[in-house]
Specification:
Tetracycline Repressor, domain 2; about 80% helix; 10 helices; Arc Repressor Mutant, subunit A; globular; mainly alpha; about 190 residues
Length: about 190
């Protein structure tokens, strides 16, 4: 495992500080009302520095879910190879989802939904998550001829997550996201 150098750590910390400040401002003032100037002032950086880390304020929200596919993929790689791939992905997603506070998930989703541009980019990112999860499944579970079935598992898993998130947000987090994920995967199991 590579050790993070000082420069990489500082870069990661600055990017996180900008994202944290922006999220706080988005929640307080609304996404559209929060300007780039307000974000840079609150983060104590210049506009030029901002653009070194992010292309736009949209990128800040998108970055909050950017690592999702890789998180799932890393978990899949750690699962035992004798498991059914769909079960492995489900369990990884449930463990990963349990780590996020419900109120944070709802607040971030509301922010994303407040911008058509961000929502379009969020929807497009699911394709990338599917690809990342598929690659991990292929590395872990690779019997000959399994590419199509593993691709379907990745697509269905990300689809189940999307449905679970929609249900979670519809009921305003009254039930934990984990329960919605179980519901989605159980519905899938009943159909196959």
């Amino acid at each position: 495992m590579a050790v993070e150098g000082l420069r990489e750590r500082k870069r990661r910390e600055t990017a996180q500080r900008i994202a944290d400040v922006a999220l706080r401002l988005f929640l307080a003032n609304g996404y559209e009302a929060t300007t780039l100037d307000a974000i840079t002032a609150a983060a104590g950086i210049s506009r030029r520095t901002f653009f070194y880390y992010y292309k736009s304020k949209d990128d800040i929200l998108i970055s909050m879910q950017a690592g999702l596919g890789e998180t799932i993929a890393a978990g899949v790689r750690d699962e035992p190879a004798d498991r059914r791939p769909l079960d492995a992905v489900r369990d990884v997603m449930i463990r990963a989802s349990a780590a996020y506070p419900a109120e944070d998930m709802i607040a971030i989703d509301r922010l994303m939904r407040s911008s058509d541009v961000v929502m379009a980019r969020k929807q497009a990112s699911y394709v990338e998550h599917e690809r990342t999860v598929y690659e991990a499944l292929r590395e872990k579970f690779s019997p000959p001829g399994s590419e199509t079935s593993l691709r379907i598992v990745a697509m269905v898993a990300i689809g189940a997550m999307r449905l679970a998130l929609e249900a979670f947000n519809r009921d305003h987090g009254k039930r934990p996201i984990v329960e919605h994920l179980w519901d989605a995967f159980n519905a899938l199991d009943r159909e196959i």
